[in-house]
Design goal:
Layout lengths: L2 H28 L5 H23 E4 L3 E7 L14 E4 L5 E7 L3 E5 L14 E4 L5 E12 L4 H8 L3 H18 L4 H7 L1 H17 L3 E13 L1 H74 L3 H10 L21 H5 L1
Antiparallel strand pairs: 1-3, 2-4, 5-7, 6-7, 7-8
Length: 338
């Protein structure tokens, strides 16, 4: 509790005491009793009440987050030239009056949610894009009064600056900015650029009217039900197209993999066939060479051939078929020799 509030409280108690004593005196007088004992108390409490009342009207305490504009009957402009800063101040009772202005940061919100903004109900900003689509913007403006320009603000706007300056300026600036972009740009590609444009324009407009823009917050962007349904259908179609593209790519990769596997198998078969052919060729060449050696070794030596033939006969052979007209398996040696 500051001193000004304390003095006002004491003034109220003094007036209560005064009226209490006055009622008691009237009651005693009605019963024809002496009121001389109460007279001094009545006068004392009246004087105290008046003194405390005057002090309460003259003392003004300004909080650190406030500034006071003094309406004065002693000034030609009707105002003191300087605003009152934090602390205890004295003004002339009945001739001067203090109007308090907050200099702390204030947030003004316009939202589709019924309980978020300064106004109840849907307070979002309705705007149209460059391509004619309707959007609804939720935004918050954080601002504060320039302490050095409170007198000018009071002269121009008094206490109407929020309803008649901040709100309409913000809504108009947002609508103008949205109208310069297409719907796709507002939603995604140029949203940050649009937010920066709004911030710069709003800061300039508020600075010209003795306010400082701390920040502009583009909270959300909504669409009309028709456009929202169209966007949803487009997203579904894009997802289906992406899925089909993925399926095609998957099938292509599977086909390529199968082709590569088949190519590998075919290459392996060719390589194996070449290897088998080369092996057979080498074997044939070896057999031919061996036959040449055998033929060379048997040349002019028929008895060796006969010996090899006989050695190959099974030891348990009992019956043999002989060529027609040949009584022996082999010619007799003496016959061959002859």
């Amino acid at each position: 509790m500051n001193i000004a509030t304390l003095v006002s409280t004491l003034s109220a108690f003094a007036w209560l005491a005064f009226f209490g004593l006055l009622v008691a005196a009237v009651a005693r007088a009605a019963r024809q009793k002496s009121v001389r004992a109460l007279t001094g108390g009545i006068l004392a409490t009246m004087v105290l009440a008046i003194v405390f009342t005057v002090l309460g009207l003259g003392l003004v305490y300004i909080n650190p987050e406030e500034r006071g504009v003094v309406k004065s009957a002693f000034n030609d402009q009707g105002l003191r030239p300087e605003a009152l800063g934090p602390g205890l101040h004295w003004i002339t009772p009945f001739a001067e009056e203090v109007l308090l202005y907050p200099i702390s940061r204030t947030t003004y919100t316009m939202s589709v949610a019924t309980t978020e903004g300064q106004l109840t109900g849907d307070d979002s900003i309705r705007a149209r894009t460059k391509d004619g689509q309707e959007v609804f913007v939720d935004a918050s403006i954080v601002y504060q009064i320039d302490p050095s320009k409170i007198i000018q603000l009071h002269i121009t706007w008094q206490l109407r600056y929020e309803d008649e300056l901040v709100r309409p300026t913000a809504r108009s600036t947002i609508r103008d900015a949205v109208s310069q972009y297409g719907i796709e740009e507002v939603v995604s590609t140029k949203r940050a650029e649009m937010e920066e444009l709004i911030t710069n324009r709003l800061a300039a407009a508020m600075s010209d009217n003795y306010l400082t823009l701390v920040s502009f917050l583009l909270r959300d962007i909504h669409f009309s039900p028709e456009y929202a349904a169209a966007v949803e259908q487009k997203q579904i179609a894009e997802q289906l197209a992406q899925q089909a593209k993925f399926t095609v790519e998957q099938k292509r990769q599977e086909a390529e993999q199968a082709r590569q596997v088949a190519q590998g198998i075919a290459d392996a078969v060719v390589i194996k066939a070449k290897g088998d052919a080369e092996a057979r060729l080498i074997q044939a060449q070896a057999e031919a060479g061996a036959n040449d050696l055998i033929a060379a070794s048997l040349a002019g030596r028929p008895e060796l051939l006969m010996y090899l033939y006989i050695s190959k006969l099974a030891p348990n052979i009992q019956i043999m078929l002989l060529p027609s007209g040949s009584p022996f398996i082999f010619p007799l040696p003496d016959v061959i020799t002859q």
